[in-house]
Amino acid sequence: MLVLLHDGCPVQVAVRPWDRLLAWLHSPRLDFALAAGASPDATVALSLRAQTLVRTRARRALAQAARRVLAEAAQPSAAHVPVPVCRDRVQDCAPELEDLIHRLLAPGPVAAQGIAQASALLTDATSPLYHRANRDNLRARVVSAAHALDPA
Fold this sequence. Notes:
mainly alpha, two-stranded antiparallel sheet, 8 helices, 7% strand
């Protein structure tokens, strides 16, 4: 059972196995919507995806990915890396990435929006972490994800 908001009122909704499958199949689209600020209480799929993203396991995996990015940026490029990081960009915002890692690993609740933003940044090969042609400000994206983790 989930409680969603419909026209500002809480409504109980039964969750079927089909709903879980659809949330898993559409996870990239749902992550994009959550990162953009969609309410996790808007639909069953968004709610299920948000629940998955905010779990401790997912948070630890993202923190570990951020640590790998920092480690790779500190060393000469390795041939075995499938998508090399933009070392200079990562090194320039290392303190902000450390803050993101700290917030991901901190106890307590976090907002799905911040997890979705961090996930997009760390897993999308076209993000400014990996793709030099992407002109997004990496520092601003990292800071935005870190601040969006705040559930308030």
